[in-house]
Design goal:
single chain; alpha+beta; Uridine Diphospho-n-acetylenolpyruvylglucosamine Reductase, domain 2; Uridine Diphospho-n-acetylenolpyruvylglucosamine Reductase, domain 3; Vanillyl-alcohol Oxidase, Chain A, domain 3; 3 domains; eight-stranded antiparallel beta sheet; 28% helix; binds flavin-adenine dinucleotide; FAD-bd_PCMH_sub1
Amino acid sequence: MAQPTIEDKQIEQFEATLHGDLIRPDDADYDDARAVWNGMIDKYPELIARCRGAADVIQAVEFARETDLPVAVRGGGHNVAGTAVCDDGLVIDLSEMRGVWVDPDAQRAWVQGGATWADVDHETQSFGLATPGGVVSDTGVAGLTLGGGIGHLRCKYGLTSDNLVSVDLVTADGEFLTASEEENEELFWGLRGGGGNFGVVTGFEFDLHPVGPDVATCLVFYHGDDLADVLSAYREYVDSASREVSTLVFAGELPDEELFGADVLYEPKFAIMGCHSGGVEVGTGELAPLRGLADPLADFSGVMPYADFQRILDEDYPDGMRYYWKSLYLDGITESAIDRITYWADAAPSPLSTVDIWQIGGAITDIGVEESAFAGRHAPYLLGVEANWEDPQMDSANVEWVRDCLDDMRQFSDGSVYLNFPGFLEDNDETMETTFGATYERLSALKNEYDPTNLFSLNQNIKPTT
Ligand SMILES: Cc1cc2nc3c(=O)[nH]c(=O)nc-3n(C[C@H](O)[C@H](O)[C@H](O)COP(=O)(O)OP(=O)(O)OC[C@H]3O[C@@H](n4cnc5c(N)ncnc54)[C@H](O)[C@@H]3O)c2cc1C
């Protein structure tokens, strides 16, 4: 479809309304501004509006509506599908809106829509407080929260979105609204799991909990030959663990020269990672069984600051590398599921890729499935299939590995997925309907109300029916 032509004058008038910069293709910082975390994404927007506050966001939404430009909304820029940028459209970029304010007495944090988890942990941990975030610190708060949010505190304190108190956003008609349990309740329901479909979030208010500053952690590496036996034992451990424990397993080659000698560098391996959100002594004791499920190749478990643990995986996911990630909720990790996980971990074309198993449960299941839009409370585990590679010539082999793995693993699943690991959104409509089921209609009704023309369509999209 041909894009509408926008007069320079119109752009200048728009620019004059902004406090932040408006970046265009000829500007020196254009290439930096259009780059996102995933090096597979190479989009050329017409304009990038670096918003400084809600007023800029309102102006940007109004300009997009008037000009009919496609719109992308950027928080932390970490969505694997690269939905934070678009070709020939307007990027509403909140990456300069990273303020975080903490009220330690009320145990609340106010977080701007472009903040990362590093920003949040930095401020909240100064008071020994935290809200559940993601496991890599430079991921954006906005995209992660709107899609649900699973991190190291999930079994004790639930999803990130379960900890929302209120959300400030600019809707498609340029209106600034607050959504909470007390006002715009249906919108608040939809924002907790329905993604970026209903507007541009300028601020989140989160509940905080006492965590750390030191926590007991587990990060133990085993040889791939032990995967089947260890996962069986791990499953039993998880079934009886306290809610303070949240863990995940990742399997692959994990060829880290600093961690492993030449004898095992390219051998299959896996790690069990997690933390205990209670006291360090009891936590160390409770995590101890995970460290002795076989002979470890390496064990970095121990007591450390929670904020450091939140950053421990950062260097494994550098900006600009090539990524393709998808997911599937699993009914359980049965012997036959473990057998297939072992197969797919070994079959990865890239040594940097992993098959991940996230423990779900605890506080996540305290919230009724109808209390928020999030659609993944029913399953005990989430399978993440992460292709991570460097060579562009290996693109199709890596993408195919992820898709083939998911096709095979569907036998252990109802087919629903975690929307924050969306591949390239190639099967959006089917995925959304399978994942949300009957809830999809309720989300569509909300979309009709707040974004009937689908201005916010570059996302895990809920289609309006108007
Ligand atoms: C290295 C890495 C680690 C991850 N770890 C975890 C994890 O531990 N737990 C987990 O749950 N997920 C995790 N994820 C997935 C993550 O939740 C998603 O990639 C999420 O989309 C990232 O949010 P972002 O703001 O950085 O994304 P962006 O790419 O900036 O945005 C993605 C989408 O979110 C929406 N959006 C962003 N900002 C706003 C806003 N201000 N208002 C309205 N809509 C907005 C838009 O629809 C946008 O297209 C991880 C991803 C990466 C890359």
